[in-house]
């Protein structure tokens, strides 16, 4: 991917119109500032930001700590 190319996280298509793209999250990098996560305006609500398996595991850990 070249610099300046924005790809929608929901549909994996390039965002060609800058006015159509929105930042839906910022992911941290291991070294450096990280990167912005983009989506088309119409797909912004469809982006899953949390891995469902990770959420399931973390929910079990949090529940076990509450006991």
Please estimate the helix content.
10-25%
Task: Report strand %.
Answer: 15-25%
Describe the oligomeric state of these chains in a short phrase.
single chain
Q: What is the strand tally?
A: 2
Helix and strand run: EEH
How far do the termini sit from each other? 47 Å
Taken together, the total number of domains comes to 1
How would a crystallographer describe the biggest sheet? 2 strands, antiparallel
The neighbouring-strand order within the major sheet is 1-2
* Poorly predicted regions: none
Shape: elongated
What would your notes on this structure say?
The protein is an alpha+beta fold and 67 residues long. It has one domain (18-66). The protein has one helix and two strands. The protein has one helix at residues 52-66, and strands at residues 21-27, 35-40. Strands 1-2 form a two-stranded antiparallel ribbon. It is elongated, with a radius of gyration of 16 Å. The model has no long low-confidence stretch (mean pLDDT 86).
Summary keywords:
67 residues, alpha+beta, two-stranded antiparallel sheet, 1 helix, 19% strand
Brief summary of the model shown:
With 67 residues, the protein is α+β, with helices and mostly antiparallel strands.
Topology:
Layout: E1 21-27, E2 35-40, H1 52-66
Antiparallel strand pairs: 1-2
């Amino acid at each position: 991917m070249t610099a300046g190319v924005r790809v929608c996280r929901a549909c994996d298509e390039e965002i060609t119109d800058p006015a159509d793209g929105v930042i839906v999250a910022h992911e941290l990098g291991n070294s450096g500032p990280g990167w912005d996560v983009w989506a088309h305006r119409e797909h912004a609500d469809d982006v899953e930001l949390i891995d469902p398996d990770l959420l399931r595991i973390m929910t079990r850990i949090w529940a076990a700590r509450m006991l």
